[in-house]
Amino acid sequence: MDNDNLITQSDEQIVFFFKSLENMLDGLENLTKNYRPMLKGERYLTDKEVSERLRLSRRVLQNYRNEGRLPFCKLGGKILYRESDIQRMLDDGYRDSLR
After folding, report:
1. SS3 state of residue 62
2. Hey, where are the domains in the chain?
């Protein structure tokens, strides 16, 4: 290695390194933003999260609760749903095509 070579910000390897670092930081930010800790092996979703994911109004979710179609728990005025219960409801409603 020659001691006369000066590495600058515009050096191709430096630019590549910082781009890679930026991509990793973006990925970590997305992971932490969407992170849901598990409680006893279960993830719990809020009313708002379920309605956004399923593209249902919160009123429809309330109807499902009232009809007993969707299990939930109420904690301090906040409605929570187990992710596995949502998946089970979707699986139970799944219908194969007629082909």
Report:
1. helix
2. 8-35, 44-93
pTM of the entire predicted model: 0.58
Residue 74, number of CB atoms within 10 A of its CB: 9
Q: Give CA–CA dist 65/74, Å, rounded.
A: 11
CA distance 12 to 14: 6
DSSP string across 20-51: HHHHHHHHHHHHHHT----BTTB-EEEHHHHH
Long-range CB contact pairs, 70-77, < 8 A, 24+: 73/44
Cα radius of gyration (the chain): 24
The DSSP element (H or E) to which 79 belongs, if any, is strand 78-82
- Fold of the 44-93 domain: Arc Repressor Mutant, subunit A (1.10.10)
- pLDDT tens string 13-47: 888 988 999 999 988 888 777 666 667 778 899 99
